[in-house]
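Most newcomers find our protein records easier to grasp once they have seen one. A learned vocabulary of local backbone shapes supplies the integers on the structure line. Here is such a record, shown just as it appears in the course material:
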Amino acid sequence: MSEVWGVPDESVWGKSRGLDPGLPPYPLVRHLLDAAAMALHLWDAFLSESQRLRIAEGMGFAGESDRARAVVGLCAGLHDIGKVSGFQFCSRHGSAHLSPALASGRERMTGEWFGHDVAGLQVTQDVLTALGLADGGEVRAAQRMAEVIGGHHGRFHRVEDGVAPGFLGDAAWAGQRVAHAGAVHGALGRPQVPEEFTAAVAVLVCGVVMLADWLVSQEDYLRGRQRELEPTLEGHFARSQRDAPTLLKGAGLVRVQLGRKEFAQAYGIAGEPNPLQRSMADELREAVGAGRRGGILVVTAAPGDGKSETALEAERILSHAFGTQGYVFLLPTMATSDQMHARIARTLQAQSGKEAGLTLVHSMAWLNSAYTDEDLDTQPVLTCDGDERPAGRGRAETDMRPQRWLRGAKRPLLAQFAVGTIDQALMAVLPVRHNALRMLALSGKTFIVDEAHAYDPYMQVLLGRLLNWLGAYGVPVVLLSATLPASVSDRLIKEYLQGAGHNTRNRRGARNTAPALAERTFPVPYPGWLYVDAASARATEISERRRTEQASARSMKLAVQVEPVAHEAGGRTRPRQDVIEQLLEPVSEAEGGTALVVCNTVADAQATYLRLRERFDQRTHQQGGMVQLLHARFPAHIRETRTAEVTAGLGRSGPRPERRIVVATQVVEQSLDLDADIVISDLAPMSLLLQRAGRCWRHEQHWARNGYPDGRTRPGWATEPRLVVLDPIADGGRVPQQWGEVYSEHLLTTTSRTLHSLTNTTISIPDDVQHLVETVHGDGTDFDWNTPGGNDEKAWTAHKGKETAERSMAGLRAVPRARSTAALHDLHHLPGEEDEWELSTRLGADSVRLLCTYLHPDGTLTLDPAATQPLPEATDGKKMPNASVRAVMRRTLPVRADWLAGADPDSIAPPPSWTDHPLLGELRLLRQPLHSGTAQAVTIGKHRLRLDEDLGLTRK
């Protein structure tokens, strides 16, 4: 592999830290060959057909996949070329083995220190030119390759942010850079640099480079290769190619083919698919036809209409048509993601996908019971982040960043099938480290977003920006919603099409007579679907016959009862609690039944639960009382258990309790499969009220056809589905002060008026749903300036101002659109080293994770009041066992950071031995003193906090 470029000096090391100190470090040229071989295998076995097509097209190699494959291998093979520099002196062990010809340059090369990724960015073009690969039209593509190589540690840099010439060394060092690159180039069959290389495609290539580098940098693998080096570089490259499949399988990234089953068998649902689901096979398939570049499908239907199964049926068609492998299913919250993960796991198993890579992807996913302690073990990845400083200047011995962005046995978003929160995907369009890796993970799958209505304007802009990039990659997209305003769906579709190459406005003098996106609208039928082809922008919708069948099959008259209530004593209307108790009297009587009471705040839910428990059943939730409580302010393990109990009692299959009252917050609005005989809700914006109403008589038609669980029909008092809205605004009232900024006052006021204007106090589902959503949430709901109403005008102005501010903030933070990205540095345009925890996908108060502990009289601190579980400690420099970390983290819960403002930092700090742990070190501790075995409240700043076993965390 020496060619005419010289022989690579194998004293130039690529990996040293974490390897056998009794042997020479791992040679850089061999690490480069490892990465090149892995990149080739990723092309063959990991990338989807659609990704390969897009990469080849973006390099000007359409129809020449092998040429694009070789360029990807070359980028991976040159990723660490910047290490042939002053980097070599950052390790005593590594520099001690340098050949005399290179070791003599130490003093000249270590005056200033730079990252080897930045050094790679600067030298790549010179190296390619020396190899004769960037003499003509390839110069711009060579610059793009340099950007990719400079970004392989997760952050793209400016070309002008170069390194000092001294850091790169003299002619001997420059010659070694060319020799190393020549060895890689020769091993790959001397590929040519393309004449074009688009930014969007370069992002994917960088993702491949990152993944290849990570896979061949695993400690066990490197130690084995270090001990048994092949005699020649040719032999080494051949061995690397043989090892690549095993490494990919060990990471859980091997693709599997599902054994597609019939509907009932695939999803475990008795009976035939409904008209909406049937339309996927007989109408969507025809609409997709011989599509070439993906498309976007928007599905709308009432809660409980089986949209999730509809999406998975659509995925079968879209993945087959557009060459994607697997899918990512994204939801608004961790709780809904946990529920969907269990459903998807059953679905994959039913389709012979037991070996398929399936991950749960959210910040606390590894705490889910789906993962065992063994699953949490991650193979150490010997990256060189932080190695750019010379030995002895405070470099940490252990870098935890790989575990932060690839934590978990299946490497979250990279798995063939992934379920998680929308936040994990939105990180791809924020200027955070490794956003290119997220883009790689998403671009090879069908992209499914559930509850698309549930995101505020800030998140809608980020979702639109992500759809823009996915449109550029030809990724098939499915959006699901029960209450999506037409203006929102229209904007999201147009963002996708713009990414696919369609103009928002026609250019002057352009010959293209197709109407610009700004001149078109894309209305989605309700219930039904709209499919828009990425290549042609042709829109196809569900047939009127199927839409009518679906509307008829799921038709329901929802009785709406509006009850004016007062949250404070002394008002003109009845107290809220009294109204709730009266409404629930029938549940406590002989016939029993089930009821769901949805509150707008945790405090309201806790107070409501206490009153109902006192009135109807003195037993607590843990003691099996008929009144249950569910909200987000329980420790993770308790919340998971309670969610399972609630969904089992009010789920489709039963066993159904004789009588049950569930008091909950907004956690039950989305994706929880609940059926109650009556739903009582605090006033909320119309779209959310309709979501809550979707938990009323949700399975009635299914039970009417297939029988009720345990043969127990609905009680006699439940003659029709009924939603009771507790309205504090009616009769001249005000939005309760304790609701704070939970919901816009304008949306609440508009919803209240709309409810009072209902004809016959009923809502026809699905016929009335879209009209009601547009009335309150649509773009056409401007304030009527002819009838100003004091607070109404102020509320409208505040609502619109907040909405505009959120959209503007998202626009400033998000990366540019795919076709507007000129330099890869545009993906990291904010100053500093932003990592995932530094930028948020959601606006609002910052949160921290709180661990509620128990302080015993003798000063002992435990995880439980009975003192059976002491706080685990890391001793003698040993790693904290996964089981201990899980035991702690499963007892944490998120709280607003400002709740802890004013607290003595030492009083809420974790134990000293936790400080350096990436998870435990970020916790805040509530040290609750025990008095007669009972935890006492702790005063922190303006609040008194206490973890009640039955109520969850209380705040006064």
In short: Residues 847-955 form one domain. The first strand starts at residue 13 and ends at 15.
